[in-house]
Amino acid sequence: MAMKFAFVFPGQGSQSLGMMAAYGDSPMIRATFDEASTALGRDLWKLVAEGPAEALSQTVNTQPLMLTAGIAVWRLWQEKGGLQPALLAGHSLGEYAALVAAGVIALKDAVPLVELRAKAMQDAVAAGEGAMAAILGMDAEMVKKICAESAQGQAVQAVNFNSPEQTVIAGHAAAVQRAADACKAKGAKRAVMLPVSAPFHSSLMQPAALRLQAALADMSFNAPKIPVLNNVDVATVTDPDAIKAALVRQAAAPVRWVETMRAMQATGITHVFECGPGKVLAGLTKRCADGLAGGAMNDLAGVEATLAAVKG
């Protein structure tokens, strides 16, 4: 019996200088970066290969870069005769890569779209006014309760349910700090402020969601060739307008990753492979759902190992 597997695409935070060198000298990867660079009007390959590292972590660069990297690895997989996954998903920004892989949107259209998404998110909250923090070793329901108590008229919400032991919160900087301190006081193992430029997925991103909605209105989407499990509803939708609506809501709503992994498992998925640089999602997989196996395609060896694993 063939293995039933899914691919997931990483989001912001998995980028690193020179990350594509791990895949060897692949013409397919270079061609993908060339295509994205042309669509964007700037050289993404030079950025990832030479940096500077600070530029890589600027949201407006990170989002097009990680989208392109995910699709480059996806195309490498296809070129090597990799089988088609039963299901796709992506963490936050990674959902756009999943939609490109599923044939919903062309890479050349998705790259400027995520650049616009990045700018809109950046513009939604003035620099220094927003923050994010990872709360480790505390139940998500408790984190949500503490956020509600710490708001004091400001915004602070649980925005990434990454694993049962890791919840990311976001909102106004002062409220996030209050909630982080309260979580630690009430037993969280750690509360780590994240080096991000905006409070992603919090209610403060509503202006960004509206800009995204305006941009998406003019774009033509196709029905997916492979089902994509979305972040905002943990649902697979096929109607192009419903896919757009979910992306709009995703910008200012939580990433429900634990539920996404469990929903995959409920469909009979046994293995989830991370398609792209980094291995953050591969590490979260097992922690989200007992018995679900995870693997990373963060280098050429990882791609080859996954090819071998799914052929069984």
List the helices and strands and how they pair.
Layout (H helix, E strand, L loop, with lengths): L4 E5 L17 H14 L3 H7 L2 H4 L2 H21 L7 E4 L3 H8 L5 H18 L5 E7 L3 H11 L5 E8 L2 E7 H13 L4 E4 L12 H12 L22 H11 L6 H10 L4 E5 L4 H9 L4 E5 L2 H12 L1
Parallel strand pairs: 1-2, 1-7, 7-8
Antiparallel strand pairs: 3-5, 3-6, 4-5
* Strands ordered across the widest β-sheet: 2-1-7-8
Number of helices: 13
This entry's quaternary arrangement is: single chain
The number of distinct β-strands equals 8
Notable features of this structure?
single chain, 312 residues, alpha/beta, 8 strands
Could you explain the architecture of this structure?
48% of the residues lie in helices and 14% in strands. A hairpin with a 2-residue loop joins strand 4 and strand 5. Helix 1 runs antiparallel to helix 4. The longest helix is centred in the N-terminal third of the chain and has 21 residues. The mean pLDDT is 96.
In short:
This protein has 312 residues and is α/β, with parallel strands linked by helices. Helices cover 48% and strands 14% of the residues.
